[in-house]
Write a structure and sequence with these properties.
Layout: H1 9-20, H2 24-37, E1 42-48, E2 54-59, H3 99-105, E3 108-114, E4 121-127, E5 130-131, E6 135-137, E7 142-148, H4 155-159, H5 164-181, E8 186-191, E9 194-199, H6 205-213, H7 215-218, E10 221-228, E11 231-238, E12 250-254, E13 257-259, H8 262-271, E14 284-289, E15 295-296, E16 307-308, H9 311-327, E17 333-335, E18 348-350, E19 419-421, E20 425-429, E21 433-438, H10 439-457, E22 462-472, H11 475-483, H12 485-490, E23 494-499, E24 502-509, H13 517-530, H14 537-552, H15 562-572, E25 588-592, H16 593-599
Parallel strand pairs: 1-8, 12-14, 17-25
Antiparallel strand pairs: 1-2, 2-7, 3-4, 3-7, 4-5, 4-6, 8-9, 10-11, 11-14, 12-13, 15-16, 17-18, 19-20, 20-21, 21-25, 22-24, 23-24
Helix pairs in contact: 1-3, 2-5, 8-9, 10-14, 11-13, 13-14
Length: about 600
């Protein structure tokens, strides 16, 4: 029978290193954090072969006293904590005292340092945990550390390293995070004797974003700055057209530390609900400042995960701040055609800011319900297309109604007859050029907002079916549907259990009468069974309303009469978010007069 025995220190150190040091980028992160905590104003990083052969970090910080050099390599030795209470008042990036001990156990390390008050500095080396004696070093003030041959004594770990180009990519990402988190630092990164990045101390946050991510991102950012109690949130969020296929360009910093937090990331995505298509992610650079006693950073050795004392309040704060900022922008997509010389240009460009429009009726912050007078047109369900002809809306002067929620003339109001192309798109002249409208996306947005408004005001009308419609489902589908029957009833969709896998549709919203109740329910059922996690009530209602609106709206291929077209275009000017359908697709593209002139070489 195996006996229990205590592991050797060399084995323990290698196990600990496995938690902290995954690849060269992990070493760069830990050394950068030490340099920042030392009060450096200038840090230079040099790497060779992606960091596998050499990582050198030089700073001009406070340095280390000669008698403390050996302690720097000891486990859990640090100058940043004294008592357990200090863990709840951490003001530094590092505090665990593990970084150098972990690195030196799997690499060959040389540490040279000089404090400002010392005439000479000192140096010490540590190879695989074996330490040399400290020696005098006649260097400049600050610290210089070299890490060579990473994982030389753990060859299995070294085999898992990727190519040099892949590893320098990870190093660059850690460099980027520090450069964005600490905008006062002068930072330089070199790879194989070539400069990758040099960021001067005077570079602003926006200039740093432009350096790392280019003008495509920097030119589409909206600044945010909000406070809620002790929390301060600032930074930039991007126009929805700047979306990405993953969340890697969502940067969240807490008190100058880059962190990962699924809850706050979800709050950011929720702020873009209805503006991004499924599977697409917003771009953002968010900075959160909190008193240290409201957050626990001692969660994981990498210090990338934290716990908040009131995570729900922060979730609501970020969600409402992002929503408020986006609703202050006119997000109508602008169409740019290919150039006449064959060079391609981005298809969508953000329009300059115009009059604000509300994107969301509910959310983390309570707001007054939008009031719509009876004289304003509403989409009727009586016609086959679901669109009722309406008269032009009267002009409202600022003196008559200064309310930001009151309808107002749109800068895109049509000037001439509207055409329908391919029974899918509406083309009209505007003061800015030619507007191309997706009839389905626009009608979907209008129906969604009408459903939401009626739900908020308690005026949603439902039609009871004299003979309930039977819908055959699988046992799983029926169970999921009946599980949410109360929420579906709020939306006017009544369902009852009929036994087995059959459910009965007993009522449906009169607003969606152009589609059969069975068709609408099947769309809802498909959505419910494909959801991986249980949404909040607000999320659920929003998702189902957008789904119901999608199934009830006119479709691509539906011919519309001239009156129906005019009614649909007129309704566009009274939608709170006329530029996107609830699923994030643009409802219209603007082809400006300047674009036309350029294509015909009039300019």
């Amino acid at each position: 029978m195996p006996r229990i025995r205590q592991l050797a220190n060399s084995v323990v150190s290698k196990i600990a290193a496995g938690e902290v040091i995954e690849r060269p980028a992990s070493v760069v992160k830990e050394l950068l954090e030490n340099s920042v905590d030392a009060g450096s104003s200038r840090i230079e990083i040099e790497v060779e072969q992606g960091g596998a052969d050499l990582i050198r970090v030089v700073d001009n910080g406070c340095g280390i006293l000669p008698e403390d050099l050996a302690l720097a390599f000891a486990n859990h030795a640090t100058s940043k904590l004294a008592t357990a209470d200090d863990l709840f008042a951490v003001h530094t990036l590092g505090f665990r005292g593990e970084a150098l001990a972990s690195v030196s156990s799997v690499a060959q390390v040389m540490l040279q340092s000089r404090a400002p008050e010392q005439p000479l500095g000192a140096e010490i080396s540590c190879h695989g945990g074996e330490m040399s004696e400290a020696r005098a070093w006649n260097g400049s003030i600050g610290t210089r550390i070299e890490v060579r041959h990473l994982f030389y004594n753990t060859p299995v770990r070294r085999k898992f390293l990727r190519t040099a180009s892949t590893e320098i990519g990870h190093v660059s990402e850690n460099f980027t995070r520090v450069a964005l988190a600490k905008p006062h630092l002068h930072l330089t990164l070199r790879h194989n004797d070539k400069i990758v990045y040099e960021v001067p101390a005077k570079a602003t946050l926006m200039e740093r974003i432009r350096l790392f991510f280019g003008g495509e991102v920097a030119d589409q950012l909206y600044a945010i700055d909000a406070r809620h109690g002790p929390a301060h949130l600032y930074g930039f969020i991007a126009n929805p057209v700047c979306e990405r296929g993953n969340a890697r360009q969502q940067y969240l910093f807490l008190n100058g530390r880059w962190i990962r937090d699924r809850s706050l990331g979800h709050a950011l995505q929720e702020g873009y609900r209805g503006l991004l298509m499924t599977g697409r992610y917003a771009v953002a650079f968010l900075y959160l400042e909190l008193p240290p006693d409201l957050v626990d950073v001692n969660v994981h050795p990498t210090k990338a995960e934290v716990r908040f004392r009131d995570a729900q309040a922060l979730y609501s704060f970020i969600l409402s701040t992002v929503r408020d900022r986006l609703r202050a922008e006119n997000l109508t997509a602008r169409m740019r055609p290919p150039s006449v010389f064959g060079n391609t240009v981005p298809l969508f460009q953000p329009r300059p800011s115009e009059a604000s429009g509300s994107l969301f009726g509910g959310g983390a912050r309570e707001e007054p319900n939008r009031v719509v007078s009876d004289q304003w047109p509403v989409v009727s369900e009586r016609k086959q297309s679901g669109i009722e002809p309406v008269a032009p809306a009267p002009t409202v002067s600022p003196q008559e109604d200064a309310s930001p929620l009151a309808p107002r003339p749109s800068p895109l109001a049509p000037h001439s007859r509207t055409l329908q192309l391919h029974n899918a798109y509406l083309v009209l002249e505007t003061a800015d050029g030619m507007l191309i409208v997706d009839q389905h996306a626009l009608h979907e947005r209008i129906l969604f907002e009408q459903l939401r408004e009626k739900l908020q005001t308690g005026t949603l009308e439902t039609q009871q079916l004299l003979i309930p419609e039977q819908v055959e489902l699988s046992a799983e589908q029926a169970a999921r549907t009946l599980e949410h029957r109360d929420q579906l009833a709020e939306l006017g969709l009544g369902v009852e259990d009929f036994g087995g896998g059959t459910v009965l549709v007993t009522s449906y919203p009169t607003l969606l009468a152009r589609r059969s109740p069975t068709e609408i329910l099947r769309g809802v059922v498909d959505h419910l069974t494909n959801k991986g996690r249980v949404p909040t009530r607000e999320q659920f209602l929003s998702e189902i309303m957008s789904l119901m609106a999608c199934h009830a709206a006119v479709r691509s291929g539906d011919p519309l009469s001239a009156e129906e077209i005019d009614a649909l275009v007129a309704m566009r000017h009274f939608a709170q978010d006329a530029h996107h359908c609830p699923h994030g697709r643009p409802t219209a593209l603007l082809f400006t007069r300047q674009d036309l002139d350029r294509q015909f070489r009039r300019t």
